[in-house]
Amino acid sequence: MSEASAWGEPVGFVGIGNMGAPMAARLLDAGHSLVVFDVSSKATAPLIARGARQAGSAAEVASLAETVLTSLPTPDIVESVALGERGVGAGSRIKRLIELSTSGPRIAARVAQGLAAKGVTLVDSPVSGGVAGARAGTLAVMVACPRAEFDRLQPLLKVIGKPFYVGERPGLGQTMKLVNNLLSGAALAITSEAMLLGTKAGLDPDTMIEVINAGSGRNSASQDKFPKSILPRRFDAGFATRLMLKDLKLCLEEAESLGLTLWVASAVRQLWLKTFNEIGPNEDFTTIMRCVEGSTGVEVRGRAAGSSRG
User: Fold this and answer.
1) pTM of the entire structure?
2) 60 and 150 belong to one structural domain
3) What is the mean pLDDT of residues 193-212?
4) Are residues 204 and 301 in the same domain?
């Protein structure tokens, strides 16, 4: 018997965007019966063509499925979709909301409280690993909820990635994600500056990345984003600068609420804000390299990019 057959009930999914679409597709691949909603019917069309059921609202999804997953871009949308008039909390069947977005601990706490009043459990479970991880089912899923819910949901969560139980209190999953994304954003920022320095001094960018990845300076940017997206000048990692800046803002807000001053994190946020303003909010976040290059006349270009400027 497949895990989907053992699950024995439809699953809802709201938010079929860059991350939501591949996660929802993996649930279909695993044999789950899926009910979907997105404000864009174009986004849901490929899933409908594969047998998913189209709902007219988040509330309708939650009236057709006991378990609903959401993957949404901003904290205000997360709160609206969870608790709004036509949100999942207005559904008649839902028992648990698996919230996969990055919205911050305070939104998670508010959503959990609002849903609890309706008899619905929030499973605070942001993910990390990008679009490639969503497609491959290798996302890190950071889960905060009652332990019994986590144990019950593991077969479902394992379809999209590797679940980690980080605690019971709503918001702990969000905090774990903000910690992770602070490191990710800092790695990309400082690696961009380091690569500019080396290139300006006359080092070959491809050789630099090879040396860094064999040494103590290796990080997620040097191992993944530079060889795949930046050195080829494709800038196509699949995550927008505005989302990176949002996550850093949430992280610093949480630090402030805890009475902490994060000096390096504050400097990292400033460079991302510069990228946001100068390169554009909707550009891929790997374009921070273009921001760092600025008017220096230096371009960090690998052999795979060819000789033309990108």
Assistant:
1) 0.91
2) yes
3) 98
4) yes
